[in-house]
Write a structure and sequence with these properties.
The complex is a heterodimer of chains A (269) and B (330). Chain A has eleven helices and no strands. Chain A is mainly alpha-helical. With 330 residues, chain B is α/β, with parallel strands linked by helices. Chain B has two domains: 3-236, Rossmann fold, CATH 3.40.50.300; 241-309, 2-Layer Sandwich (Alpha-Beta Plaits), CATH 3.30.70.270. The model of chain B is unreliable at 1-11 (pLDDT under 50). The chains are: A mainly alpha (269), B alpha/beta (330).
């Protein structure tokens, strides 16, 4: 311990003025960006599954499902973007559960900051991750021959939509992360819920050949609605109605779960 | 030099650091904290001493706004705990039992994150982080990820993270648990330095030696209740004026010797951790002399005996009827 240095430092602790809520949130966003720099392998986990899905479905099932791999890719790629974002959200819940287990959030909670700021930062990190993952998948799609008829604008619209979907779905896993102490359980539970939603949707196949009861579910499954909206945007056939319907689930989730998040977080002991 | 902290963050500049009345916190049927009063003056090191599960951490978490009391009230630096939690948070810092650091980030980044949350901007945040790293001998590890830090380095960074702005009260929950003796000494020196610069420190510990070494005042907590409070000297004096220590030539007769000493002195005998010696509170040298004589009469030869001030271990035993460090059975 260097006593002299200690005495030199402590008196300098003049307090800066209290920062704004936005400034708090940006600080946590910065933390999320740093995580990318230090743990780049998390991106690998994130994009490997969707890349494998894309290759598997396009080349193994594509011909049988849509006549040719090229045609199937045109149908499948927008859907896999939705799947990527939805599964990514599960990782974010795991990360939160890990943070909470280590006492890091105790420190955040004992600071005089905007209570939701840590979550705003978490969300910022998620959104960044969604965008990076979606860009990688789209690039691979383009290499394999996918052509978005909607052009740049269509793609940008689809990405904006993905961000909204990721934001809405993110709350589910933040709440799970707050409720469940073990990160592995968050992951298992998350995938248990998300797998049926993702597979019983129109992401992989047209539901026309499914049994009636399943088709009825697929039609109202929020994941199908999201996939349809993204498909429309990227194909240059954007449909305002479809987009609005697809945004209902994220909006409702945010309205319901943001207050639950705050309540769970502040009550946590 | 800490004037700005006091003027800016104490509603009443003369208010004690902590005043708590009747704090209660239950978890289900367990009353973890069962009606504790606390008065901590400014500028002291105050230790909360007790075994595992005594309610120390829960008490501290309530005072740091991390857990809501079921009953009772408290002020921290003059701010009401329940009425103005934000003001309380602005005048405290807490270093919990488990490192509250981001393992993936570097030491500097951890401190910069906190500096930004306290309102330092851009270059000022980095400058503050570097000052703290230098003060805590961590400059060389500034760009290392915290997951590669040793236990002692982690602890130092964790404490540095509580000093980004100088707090009115610094809470340290078991600051040296899990550290090797060298790192423990370093943390002790650091705590003394901080107190020397005027920060009030409330620490919990289950090490009697730690409370004895550091704290001006000690509150002994057991089963969620405060069973004694005072300086280490006062606690020792209140328990027994002196203690008779006896080592036996034949440890096989320990039980017999223990019974004779208890009968003669009227206090329970405590066995040393190694089991080779006995300690019994003895009022006077005369009483101790008589007890030794009773042993010799019974044919038990002491290999060594002495009178002395009780250790905090013996104080704890006298207060609770069981050795320190033995978990409660609830």
């Amino acid at each position: 311990m260097s006593d002299a240095a200690m005495r030199r430092t402590l008196p300098m602790a003049a307090r800066p003025p209290s920062p704004s809520a936005l400034s708090n949130a940006l600080a946590f966003g910065w933390r999320a960006v740093l995580k990318f720099r230090h743990v780049p392998e998390q991106l690998f986990d994130l994009v490997m599954t969707p890349i494998m899905f894309t290759l598997l479905f396009t080349f193994v099932f594509g011909g049988a499902l849509a006549g040719s791999p090229a045609e199937y890719l045109q149908f499948f790629l927008p859907g896999i973007l939705v799947q990527t974002v939805v599964f990514n959200a599960v990782y974010s819940g795991m990360g939160l559960s890990t943070d909470l287990g280590k006492g890091l959030f105790d420190r955040f909670r004992s600071l005089p900051i905007w209570s939701l700021a840590p979550f705003a930062g978490l969300m910022a990190g998620d959104i960044l991750r969604h965008l990076i993952a979606a860009t990688i998948i789209l690039t691979i799609g383009l290499i394999l021959g996918y052509r978005p008829e909607g052009g740049i604008l269509g793609v940008l619209g689809a990405f904006a939509m993905l961000v909204a979907i990721g934001f809405g779905m993110g709350w589910i896993f933040i709440v799970l992360g707050l409720l469940i102490r073990t990160p592995m359980t968050v992951m298992t539970l998350g995938f248990t819920v998300m797998f049926p939603l993702v597979f019983a949707s129109n992401i992989m196949v047209d539901p026309a050949t499914m049994p009636d009861w399943l088709r009825a579910f697929v039609h109202v499954n929020p994941v199908s609605l999201m996939a349809s909206a993204i498909r429309g945007l990227m194909a240059g056939q954007a449909d305002a109605g479809a987009i609005l319907v697809a945004l209902i689930a994220p909006a409702v989730l945010t309205a319901m779960l943001a207050p639950v998040t705050l309540w769970l977080y502040l009550r946590r002991e | 030099m800490l004037g700005e902290t006091r003027e800016g963050h104490g509603r009443d500049a003369g208010a004690p650091a902590i005043v708590a009345r009747g704090l209660v916190k239950s978890f289900g049927a367990l009353r973890a904290v069962d009606g504790i009063d606390l008065d901590v003056p400014r500028g002291v090191i105050f230790a909360i001493l007790g075994p595992n599960g005594a309610g120390k951490t829960t008490l501290m978490r309530m005072l740091a706004t991390l857990a809501r009391p079921d009953a009772g009230s408290a002020t921290v630096m003059g701010h009401d705990l329940l009425g103005s939690p934000r003001e309380v948070r602005a005048s405290i810092a807490m270093t919990g039992q488990f490192a509250s650091l981001d393992e993936d980030l570097t030491g500097r980044e951890n401190l910069m994150l906190l500096a930004r949350l306290w309102g330092f901007r851009g270059r000022a945040a980095k400058a503050r982080a570097d000052d703290l790293l230098a003060a805590f001998d961590l400059s060389d590890a500034a760009t290392k990820q915290v997951k590669d830090y040793s236990g002692g380095m982690r602890r130092r960074l964790d404490i540095a993270a509580s000093l980004v702005v100088t707090p009115g009260v610094l809470f340290l929950d078991e600051p040296t648990t899990g550290l090797d003796p060298k790192a423990r000494k370093e943390v002790w020196a650091m705590i003394r330095d901080l107190a020397g610069s005027g920060v009030t420190i409330l620490l919990t510990t289950q090490y009697l030696e730690e409370a004895d070494q550091l704290a001006e005042r000690i509150a002994v907590i057991d089963h969620g209740r405060k069973i004694a409070e005072g300086s280490s000297r006062e606690l020792k004096a209140a328990t027994a004026s002196a203690v008779l220590h006896v080592a036996l030539a034949d440890p096989g007769r320990m039980d017999e010797a223990s019974a004779i000493l208890e009968r003669s002195l009227g206090h329970p005998a405590q066995r040393s951790a190694e089991g080779g010696a006995l300690s019994v509170p003895a009022g006077t040298a005369g009483a101790a002399n008589a007890a030794i004589a009773a042993l010799v009469t019974a044919g038990i030869e002491p290999s060594d005996f002495s009178m002395g001030q009780p250790s905090l271990d013996e104080v704890f035993f006298a207060l609770t009827g069981r050795p320190a460090g033995e978990g409660q059975k609830s």
